[in-house]
């Protein structure tokens, strides 16, 4: 008689071997298809290690195409080779740390400086500068376009003696909008990351499958569907979500194989997925989400009027946060034509 249970996963078994390999911030041993960019980043830092001034660097490109991972990989290489004794690698994500004070508190924490209680921003900056100026530093400001003010960049340029400042942004136009004095002082080298090709997308996802799942549990049709959908979206984070979700669906069905039907079910759930959770939002972002929820289908200008009544902040701040919420998958901004032939942007929630 045939074994009726051979294709059924038992309660003690799992299709996953290392689910952490599907986390957005997981850093694999290799970052494939970004070797050229990593080499250039290392060249900009190498000058510091030779006792000279490093090159400043602006990294641009769409979300979810390896910008942050490439930089963090280089920083990890520095630490593993002991080069952090010569130049301190420091990383700040400006989505969460969007003011000079928040950034400096983060830097103090990384530099293991603990006396921050009741210290103002200028005092914290002096302490940070004193520590860094004993050596040199690679200072990475990720999502730099989310900063409330670019003044902190100017201070770093002026008061840190030997440094390599790396700025990462999804907004290719950001540098053209900052103060002219800052642009002329910064004079960054520029790297634009291009989206992954279909073959590169497939290779990256297959590597993650190998790292995260039991050998040979993925059927080829299922993996192909996830690769195709990820390339269509153009954001590798959605691919990682789909890999995890597909595996979870297969496990719930007690299947020993991850099949195309499981992948299709995961793709159907993409509308419920967002890069960031609502609980991660700051107060301004929560006000915008509430305004959009209460004014469904209104234009961005109308939403701003509601937001301004609560916050009193400028349209530039509103627009920056609106784009951030769109990138996070929480809002959708859609172009629409007016009866007179003009064009407006309408905003809606992507999640209930």
Question: Could you walk me through the main structural features you see in this protein, from its secondary elements to its overall organization?
Answer:
This protein is globular. It is an alpha/beta fold and 352 residues long. It contains 14 helices and 7 strands. The longest helix is centred in the last third of the chain and has 17 residues, at 236-252. It has a 5-stranded parallel sheet with strand order 2-3-4-1-5. It folds into 3 domains: 35-192, 3-Layer(aba) Sandwich (Rossmann fold), CATH 3.40.50.300; 197-272, Helicase, Ruva Protein, domain 3; 278-349, Winged helix-like DNA-binding domain superfamily/Winged helix DNA-binding domain (Arc Repressor Mutant, subunit A). The model is unreliable at 337-342 (pLDDT under 50). Helices cover 47% and strands 12% of the residues.
Strand content: 5-15%
Per CATH, the superfamily of the largest domain is: P-loop containing nucleotide triphosphate hydrolases
Fraction of residues in helix: 40-55%
SSE order, one letter for each helix or strand: HEHEHHEHEHHEHHHHHHHEE
Structural class category: alpha/beta
Strand element count: 7
Brief sketch in words of this structure:
It is built from 14 helices and 7 strands. It has 352 residues and is of the alpha/beta class.
């Amino acid at each position: 008689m045939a074994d009726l249970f051979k294709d059924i996963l038992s309660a003690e078994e799992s299709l996953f071997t290392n689910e952490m390999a599907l986390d957005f911030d997981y850093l694999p041993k290799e970052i494939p298809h970004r070797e050229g960019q990593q080499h250039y980043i290392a060249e900009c830092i190498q000058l510091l290690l030779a006792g000279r001034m490093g090159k400043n660097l602006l990294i641009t490109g769409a979300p979810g195409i390896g910008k942050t991972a490439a930089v963090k990989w280089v920083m990890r290489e520095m630490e593993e080779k002991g080069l952090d004794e010569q130049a301190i690698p420091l990383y700040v994500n400006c989505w969460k740390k969007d003011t000079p004070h928040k950034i400096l508190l983060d830097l103090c924490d990384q530099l293991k400086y603990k006396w921050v209680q009741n210290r103002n921003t200028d005092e914290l900056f002096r302490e940070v500068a004193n520590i860094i100026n004993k050596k040199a530093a690679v200072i990475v400001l990720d999502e730099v376009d989310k900063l409330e003010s670019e003044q902190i960049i100017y201070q770093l340029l002026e008061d840190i003696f030997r440094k390599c400042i790396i700025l990462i942004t999804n907004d290719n136009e950001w540098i053209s909008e900052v103060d002219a004095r800052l642009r002329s002082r910064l004079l960054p080298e520029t790297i634009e990351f291009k989206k992954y090709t279909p073959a590169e997308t497939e290779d990256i996802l297959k590597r993650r499958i190998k790292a995260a799942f039991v050998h040979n549990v993925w059927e080829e049709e299922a993996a192909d569907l996830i690769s195709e959908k990820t390339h269509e979206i153009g954001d590798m984070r959605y691919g990682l979500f789909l890999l995890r979700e597909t595996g979870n669906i297969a496990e719930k069905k007690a299947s020993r194989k991850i099949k195309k039907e499981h992948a299709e079910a995961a793709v159907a759930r993409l509308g419920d997925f967002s890069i960031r959770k609502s609980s991660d939002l700051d107060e301004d972002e929560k006000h915008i989400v509430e305004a959009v929820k209460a004014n469904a289908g209104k234009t961005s200008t109308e939403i701003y009027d509601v937001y301004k009544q609560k916050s009193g902040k400028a349209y530039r701040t509103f627009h920056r946060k609106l784009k951030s919420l769109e990138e996070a998958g929480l809002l959708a901004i859609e172009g629409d034509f007016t009866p007179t032939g003009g064009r407006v942007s309408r905003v809606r929630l992507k999640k209930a």
